[in-house]
Amino acid sequence: MGVWRLARVLSRALSLKKSACGGALVTTSPSWVLSSGTTVLQGNTSRSYFSTGPPVTESTELVYRSHGDPSQVVQLDTRKLPELEAKSALVKMLAAPINPSDINMIQGTYAILPDLPAVGGNEGVGQVLEVGSQVQTVKVGDWVIPRDAGLGTWRTAAVFSEDDLVTVPSDISILSAATLGVNPCTAFRMLSDFECLMPGDTVIQNAANSGVGQAVIQIAAAKGVHTINVVRDRPDLQQLTDRLRAMGATYVITEEMLRKPEIKDIFKACPRPKLALNGVGGKSATELLRHLQTGGTMVTYGGMAKQPVTVPVSALIFKDVKVRGFWVTQWKRDNKQNEEALRFMLEELSTLIRAGKLSAPSCTEVEMKDFHKALDNAMKPYISSKQILVM
Questions:
Q1: Top-tier CATH class for 183-329
Q2: What is the pLDDT of residue 2?
Q3: Which pLDDT score, from 0 to 100, does residue 55 have?
Q4: How far is CA 43 from CA 11, 39, 40, 47, 335, in A?
Q5: What value does the mean pLDDT take over residues 281-301?
Q6: Between these two residues, 114 and 381, which has the higher pLDDT value?
Q7: 26 exposed, middle or buried (CB, 10 Å; 0-12, 13-18, 19+)?
Q8: Residue 244 phi, psi dihedral angles, 5° rounding
C-alpha cells in the first residue's frame, strides 16, 4: 500500500473512531489530519514522519512552577519543542485525563514529584508523528501511552524518549486508550496478584465509583467474580447504583449499610470475600477487613479519607488476614525489564475493551483552554465524571 493511500486510510479511521463518554457515543476527530508519510535523509541519519500540514514546532502546555492549589499554580503556556534526537519521538497528544494522583503531584503531596517547573498529567494517549534514526520500539502512526508516571501529558505535543513510551492498540476508543495505563492496570494487578480468584468468588471494595472501582467491577464480572461495592451516600444514589449494576456490579451498598447487620444477608447468596480493595482508609477500611473470610487479603491502593488504616487485633489473630499495599507505578518500575508482563496486561485489557466488557469511565471532555473548570470539577466531591483534556 502506498504512503498516500495508507495516510488516507489512517486519517479516515481516526475521524470515524468513536469513544464512549457518559454513556453516549461521540465522534472523536483529532485537530490534525494525516496527509502523507515519508522518510527524509539528513546527513547520515534518517527520520520517518507524517506530514501534518505545518510542522509541529510548539506545544501548548499546562505548567506549574510551584506546588499548591492546582487552580492557583497551574498555567497555560506555550514553548518551542526541542530538536528530535536519535532515540526520541515526536508525539501529538490526543487526550489526557485528570486523576487524583495528578492533583496530589501538583499539591506536592505525592510519593514522587518531578522537578519544577513541570507539565501536569501522568496519563494520556498520543500519536507518533516522527521518530529518530535509532528508534526501534515505536513507529510513525503508533498510539502511545506513558510507561511511567511523571511524563507530563497535559500538552498538545512533546518530544519523548522512546524508553518512556509503550504502544497501545489504535482500534479502541481514544478515551479508553487515554485512561488505560493507570486505573485499569491497577484493577487488573490487584485482582491477579494477591488472591487466586475463581468464578463464584467474591471481592469487596470501597471507592467503587472511582476509576479503579469501575474497572474492578468490569474485570471481575468478566471473570465471573462477585463484587460488593461500597459507595458514599449521595442524592443520586439510585442513579449511581443502576449505573454500577449495569457495569456488572453484583451488589452496591453505602458505607452506612456496610456497618449494619443486614449485610449478612448478602453472604447467604455469595461467599465472604477473599479479597478487599481499599481506596479510602479509616473506618471504611476497618469495615472491609471485618467482612473478609479467614485468610483473606486486604489491598490498600489509596487513602481518600486521609485517615490511617486500623487493623483490629482479632482480625489478625482469629482470621489471619493479610494486609498489603499496591502502587501501580512501583509495579511498572519493578517490571521495567519484563516487557512481556506489561504487554500481556495491556493486551488482556484491550481484549476486554474490544469485547465491550471494559469501558472508559464516565467522562467529560474539556478543551485545554477550559482547564480551570476541569481542575475544579476534578476536585469536587461526588463528581462521577472524569475530566478528560482533549488536544
A1: alpha beta
A2: 41
A3: 83
A4: 31, 13, 10, 11, 38
A5: 96
A6: 114
A7: middle
A8: -70, -35
| Cell numbers placing 260 | 449494619
> What is the pLDDT of the chain when averaged over all its residues?
88
Cα-trace Rg, the chain: 22
**CA pair distance 47, 40, nearest whole angstrom:** 6
Which residues lie below 8 Å from residue 10, measured CB to CB, with a gap of 6+? 34, 141
pLDDT at residue number 10: 45
User: Do the beta carbons of residue 93 and residue 75 sit within 8 Å?
Assistant: no
**What's the whole-model pTM score?**
0.85
Of residues 160, 148, 159, 89, the one with CA closest to residue 123: 148
Alpha-carbon distance of 192 to 186, in angstroms, equals 10
Strand, helix or coil for residue 170? coil
Distance of CA 147 to the CA centre of its chain: 12
Q: Tell which residue, 69, 65, 42, 38, has the closest CA to residue 51.
A: 38
Tens digit of pLDDT for each residue in 123-176? 999 999 999 999 999 999 999 999 999 999 999 999 999 999 999 999 999 999
Pair 190, 277: CB distance under 8 Å: yes
User: For residues 11 and 3, what is the distance between their CA atoms, to the nearest angstrom?
Assistant: 12
The catalytic site residues sit at: 110
Which CATH number applies to 3-181+362-390: 3.40.190.150, 3.30.360.10, 3.90.180.10, 3.90.25.10? 3.90.180.10
Domain ranges of the chain: 3-181+362-390, 183-329
Residues 24, 295: Cα–Cα separation, whole Å: 42
CA of residue 179 relative to chain centroid, distance: 4
How many angstroms separate the CA atoms of 50 and 321, rounded? Answer: 55
Tell me phi and psi for residue 298, to 5 degrees: -110, 125
Q: Is the pLDDT of residue 213 over 70?
A: yes
Contact 9, 35 (CB under 8 A): no
Residue 302 has pLDDT above 80, yes or no: yes
